[in-house]
Sequence to fold (897 residues):
Amino acid sequence: MIDVARKERNYVDADYSVWSWFLTTDHKRVAILYLISITVFFMLGGAAAVLFRLELMTPQPDFVIPETYNKLFTLHGILMVFFYLIPSIPAVLGNFLLPLMIGAKDVAFPKLNLASWYVYMVGGVLTVAAIVFGGVDTGWTFYTPYSSTYGNSAVLLAGLGVFVVGFSSILTGINFLATIHTMRAPGLTWFRLPLFVWAHYATSLIIILGTPVVSITVLLVAVERLFGVGIFDPTLGGDPLLFQHLFWFYSHPAVYIMILPSMGVISEIIACFARKKVFGYHFIAFSSLAIALLGFLVWGHHMYVSGQSMYAGFVFSFLTMLVGVPSAIKVFNWTATLYKGQVSWTTPMMYALGFIGLFTIGGLTGLFLATLGIDVHVHDTYFVVAHFHYIMVGGASMGYLGGLHFWWPKMTGKMYPETWGRFSAIVVFVGFNLTFFPQFLLGYMGMPRRYHMYPEEFQVLNVMSTAGASIMGVGYLLPLGYLLWSLWYGKNATSNPWDARGLEWTIESPPTPHNFHEKPVVTTEVYDYDPEQPLPPPSERVVSPAESETETVQ
Amino acid sequence: MLGEFRLWPRAASTVAEKVDTLYLFEVAVTVFFTILICALVIGMGVIYRKGSRAARANPPTSKWLEAIWATVPLVLVMVMFAWGAAVFYEIKTVPDGAMKIDVVGKQWMWKLQHANGKREINELHVPVGRPVVLRMISDDVIHDFYVPAFRVKQDVVPGRYSQLWFEATEPGTYHLFCAEYCGTEHAQMIGKVVVMEERAFAEWLSGTSSDDPPAVAGEKLFERMRCGTCHKQGPGGRGPSLVGIAGKPVPLKGGGSVLADANYIRESIVRPQARIVAGYQPLMPAYPQLTTEELNQLVAYIESLGAPGDGDAGRSDTGPSTPVEDATPPDENEAPSTEGENE
Fold:
């Protein structure tokens, strides 16, 4: 058995031809395709952020002209939201790991999975084309009637890009739901599923229910721009607020599309490096579903000052507050998992613990924005910018990086340098806080967002923010460097370098094209860690396939 | 005063301190829980670090702990909701007798007009200690009238009126920002709100101005466009009489009724066919050629026809507040509104 496993080539070495990648239906290779393309879009979006943060160093518009500034923040928003945050964890880690975690050979619809990547790339190319052909200056929110009637930039092309990329999410969501429902290994009951799988299940539900709405909305903007049909423009008899309702009906749940998978990653990492089952497993699993459901009922909290009725404001504020409860439960549960555990401060764990701190601040400041009386003042100011970056970067991105480190040995068969990993986690954490904490103060001071110039009294805090952004930029470049380095020079990874539980750790690193040699049968509970036993030193962490079989196969 | 470095915004309206108190409460909650969570994470991460001697036996079960940390946040967020809603209610409820000012937002400037006809651009002079209500509309895209020192903002939407009220408490000069992204020069759609002592303000207001009050200008326009041919003062016209309709419910053709607020009056000029008054034929042509300001003037005139006799008086500064529906989309005007409750 061992010999057979050793002789078989892993999924990377199985075929070196270019077409074996571009025509692959292997979920692991699709994940790698996504990993590369998402990294490219992330760097483009990050570069835009660097440029406008430089502009904001001084109150005067001296580095770029206003049009350029507006196109930069629009580009940053569109790329980061639609091409990085939404697909990052599901399409990279989810694609790679979901079948492994449930003991499957692949996702339910492998060809659809590959198609989703092509759709994603077409959407990406259209959006990049929009930049080349003049750029877009509407903001990622595309508010009408500016986007539909007044904006004279390449709105249609960018809108088409967003429209197309939505279908890639939908295909992934359908695939995950079908896979989780139909392809779990024998014995892998719903409550033996890792929380990563639960989180992706909830995310997939949001994706397939919400994404069509934003697609339709973008289509309606196009119809108004092209044919002059009055939908959103009041001079044509349309209603500009209708756009905001439709847009946020998707785009608020989209926030949970970005954060829920990250919460799944955090649960896996904390369980492994605290050597304990996640505290309140059922609560965390169901709170994902609760967040997914409630997420659809809160879109109006983006519209307290839009002219929406005061009573609608009351309802949306109340419902938004309720989302705070399952989020709080998760944070307390992760924290409680550490109690009486065996905590190792590894790179993934540092990202995960950083996530808890930043998500706590991001979540609590979300309550300020849900509070009607406060939101009137801080709406559309830097307070909002700071809040959602604490959730999106401090939450979603920290989870993505933590997960990437955690499963890097599984994905590539290589170990990254641990010291560099911890160092980068600290640099990202410090740089992040320096960038975005001053923005809370700026926001309460009243500095509106999307200003390329501002009154002088806001300069000190803006300089701090820009300084932080440069540190954070370095923090993001470090993993790019040492993870690439590890592909050639890293130590070979064993099948289970963290002595972690879960089916993905019972197979080789990197896995063979068909993952499992025999169909695994699950007899143990999820997160079957022993808190009395610390994580063994690396030299003793080799789990041979034969051993792992006794754990999982009868 | 503008331009000096500070970490806390100036508070210069009646609601500012209430917003600040609520804000500080939530800051306290945030600081408490952030420190609690960080202390627990770091503390337990150190105490229960790998291989430490701390006892690991009998970790707690989850039921009662879960119940506590579901209940405590629930109670806290409900307090935040109720408190925030109360402050919001005050921000949204215009006091009787507020001084009225018309605001038109356009790319990229603020045009303001006082009830006596005096105009301002990117600058608003108001008296201290007196409620002011802005009736705002946009000429093009969505803007947002934001005065941080007053802690209030309101989107300024094309095609419909929205309103914002405040009562300044401190004389001084304050920032006025456009808070809703509106295009290339969004960041330059800024201005100043100058809060003056009552006497200085009265002096300033009575300074030279060649403009008619909006209602008077509206009356001239009404005559020039011969609106009175159909809309006679008494009954018997081809269109309904406009005397005394403002702020009253109007029965609609096909059943139901609508509150004849500024939005309905405006809609009836721009798109007369949208909602026809019961008993009349849909004969009126649309008037798309009227500018935003001309529409404002006509609306002001029709509102000034509130009671027979004071038709020429212009809009009174101290009269009962005229309902301005900012809250609901045009076809939901039957819904109860805050402003309605003030009457």
Observations:
- Chain B has three domains: 16-49+60-92, 99-205, 214-335.
